[in-house]
Design goal:
Strand content: 25-35%
Structural class: mainly beta
Low-confidence stretches: none
Radius of gyration: 47 Å
Order of helices and strands: EEEEEEEEEEEEEE
Helix content: under 10%
Number of strands: 14
Largest sheet: 3 strands, antiparallel
Length: about 150
């Protein structure tokens, strides 16, 4: 027969409220909460301050200060520079076989006629304008010839 062993798992501080603790970080100081006697741990010695860096782009090269350079020329495909052309009522882009038919946007109202009857100016299928207020009646003049002098 074996002998029995007993173990004690008693918490000798007898305070059930101090069993859960959290870590808190304020600035660069780390501390264990719910423990008034715990010391702050200063983490500033672990800062290397290398996160404040500048990016520069020169031609096709992207560089980071104190770091490496990446050549971006392989990402350039020059497909963004395109020209538009209009043939009849079809609008097209260079390098694109798909054209856009603009004929549904034609309203064919640009082919109109102006007529003048007396002092009334009219546009076909449109409104009229009375021009009589613009007459100054100074065009009625007389000519006379006396010898070789025209007046």
């Amino acid at each position: 027969a074996g002998s029995a062993a007993s173990f004690s798992v008693a918490d000798n501080d007898n305070d059930a409220s101090n069993e859960l603790q959290d870590l808190s970080l304020t600035g660069n100081s780390l501390k264990i909460t719910n423990n008034p006697s715990a010391s702050n741990i200063d983490l500033s010695v672990y800062l290397d301050n290398t996160d404040n860096q500048n990016l520069t782009l020169s031609d096709n090269e992207l560089s980071i200060a104190g770091g490496n350079t990446v050549d971006l020329s392989s990402f350039k495909d020059n497909t963004d520079a395109q020209d538009m052309s209009l043939s009849g009522n079809t609008l097209s882009l260079t390098g694109d076989a798909t054209g856009v038919d603009l004929s549904p946007y034609l309203d064919n109202t640009d082919n109109q006629n102006l007529t003048l009857s007396s002092n009334i100016l009219s546009i076909s299928n449109g409104s009229t304008i009375d021009l009589s207020p613009y007459l100054d009646n100074t065009d009625s003049q007389d000519l006379s010839l006396s010898g070789s002098e025209l007046s």
